[in-house]
Amino acid sequence: MKKHNFSAGPCILPDEVLKESASSIINFNNLDLSLIEISHRSKPFIEVIDEAKSLVRKILNVPKNYSILFLQGGASLEFLMVPMNLMDINGTAVYTNTGTWANKAIIEAKKLGNVNIIANSSDKNYSYIPKDFIIPEDANYFHCTSNNTIYGTQIKKFPKCKIPMVCDMSSDIFSRKIDINKFDLIYAGAQKNMGPAGTTLVIVKDEILGKNNRDIPTMLDYRTHINKESMFNTPPVFAIYVSMLTLRWLDKLGGIDTIEKRNIEKAKILYKEIDRNELFVGTAEIEDRSNMNICFLLKENKLEKKFNKMCDEKGISGIIGHRSVGGYRASIYNAMPIESVKELINLMKKLEDENIS
Amino acid sequence: MKKHNFSAGPCILPDEVLKESASSIINFNNLDLSLIEISHRSKPFIEVIDEAKSLVRKILNVPKNYSILFLQGGASLEFLMVPMNLMDINGTAVYTNTGTWANKAIIEAKKLGNVNIIANSSDKNYSYIPKDFIIPEDANYFHCTSNNTIYGTQIKKFPKCKIPMVCDMSSDIFSRKIDINKFDLIYAGAQKNMGPAGTTLVIVKDEILGKNNRDIPTMLDYRTHINKESMFNTPPVFAIYVSMLTLRWLDKLGGIDTIEKRNIEKAKILYKEIDRNELFVGTAEIEDRSNMNICFLLKENKLEKKFNKMCDEKGISGIIGHRSVGGYRASIYNAMPIESVKELINLMKKLEDENIS
Description:
- 2 copies of one chain form a homodimer.
- The first copy, chain A, has about 350 residues and is of the alpha/beta class.
- Chain A has 2 domains: about 15-255, 3-Layer(aba) Sandwich (Aspartate Aminotransferase, domain 2), CATH 3.40.640.10; about 255-355, Aspartate Aminotransferase, domain 1 (Alpha-Beta Complex), CATH 3.90.1150.10.
- The first copy, chain A, has helices spanning about 15-25, 45-60, 75-85, 100-110, 220-225, 235-255, 255-275, 305-315, 340-355, and strands at about 5, 65-70, 90-95, 115-120, 140-145, 145-150, 155, 165-170, 185-190, 200-205, 280, 295-300, 315, 330.
- In chain A, strands 2-10-9-8-5-3-4 form a 7-stranded mixed β-sheet, with helices on both faces. A 3-stranded antiparallel β-sheet of chain A has the order 11-12-14, with helices on one face.
- Chain A is globular.
């Protein structure tokens, strides 16, 4: 029996993607070679990376003046690459502190220059998205995090921004409609909606690069990777291949329109149950609730053991909340079928039935 | 029919490793979950990375005062991390220029400080390994490249060195006995003898770190990854897993002793044929010839088309030389069976028979 995989990342991928990946490890494209033992400069792999880029461009409707890159090092390396490429020596960047990862981005930018933290939700354990701030126009760029995986909050409306807007979309890219034109640089670790761990997607408006006054190390310079089409050095072949298959799956399904509807529906029924069920309570502000990571607590700790056991028995996996919030976190990324969400809801109801007279 | 895969990297991996990898993508360890959709912080994956580290320590006999890391970004990012961690601001490092990759390492170090290029074989298109140089004792470190993939040269005897010795072993690590104690930092992209593209092995003597006067970005600081046991950020799960399986295969085979004998034998018979056959000539100085990448030319260009066709028909793949050397390059890494090398030798003989009366 396949598990119901609610893991926060690396996370569930479509079954057909897993099957095709496994098959390509044995024999890729009938070449009588494994995908992972061919040269990254061979025609068959260049076709893979080109298709992956085309699919990103198509699915997210990325304009021509933006480059699409597949890099390594995850969002953590982007925390460094963003200020390295966009912040002047002695320059200032504007950040929002909306969770653990946003904070890590801030720490890294501070090593390179001045950081103006314009909004901060740490006062309430990052349970909400700050709004109503004004972004100064004299900074090098503005940085935000679209979805906070650990705390289950998500920006529903991006602020107006007259300076370059940079966004870490690691945990909700490809889950909903985004107007790329509003952003100047988007980055995302693959291991949520795009593929397995091991590659990082970067979408960058070409014209914002090469404008600061730093001597940027080669591997940290986005222009290196643009010039060499993500092949300056050996790319993470397997991670890019599986990402391409996942994007193909999404495209065939109907793209963002279809998946956004599905994601809203999945989140809606689970939040509805959290709000209805007397045993549970959500942790994020209602208007800022994430449609990807749904965080909730049992009002009575003593029921946790029982509920965990019920989940285990039904094959519900990866649902324990991050230690900084506690309770539960159901990550319901693109590949999560609604049936798995319903299975979880049924268990929540069952727990209530058995414990409230 | 499985091809004879002479690709320079990513390259051939053992068949049993490919089979087990494919199977784990469908169902890993009977968890009813795919390897690539479980959390990197789950017990099953922590066991994988721990076993990978233990195998590196066992196979290479790595002393306790060295840390073993699995990073991302390939040797190309190490070109930056090495000077970032070991070179003082205004410090000097000593490099040898023995090929394209050595030169890229030099370019990166120059961005951070002074580079003293103590030996350089570019005068003869990198066809030999410079010797008889004296390493100054007042530099921060000495850097060399153990095997030059493109030019088919290999350091047979490492120089005496009183300052920290750093070595890029990307293309020959795990192929021969190495006394780790002679080195202070070794790095290697996985995609030759260790696994698929997507992770980088670093072996570093702990005591050399934290001694320079730089504020090192978090992701570029080896101490970050030592402190978090290569889990500071999401590691490249699949690449580490396949590396672990490949190391398991090597260990079962008898470790370095066995593989070194096999590698020497494979190289010996192929070089013997190159030297014997009147149509071919080797490109590297005999005493510096690599046992991993064997570079040779056809004396008469006009036979190339015919020989390429013969190779194609016999399923010999990935044998065209790098554009900067031309001719042929047979990469005969650990997983390459001697039977494939013999197949190539047979074709070389056949070409000679058909063209020399």
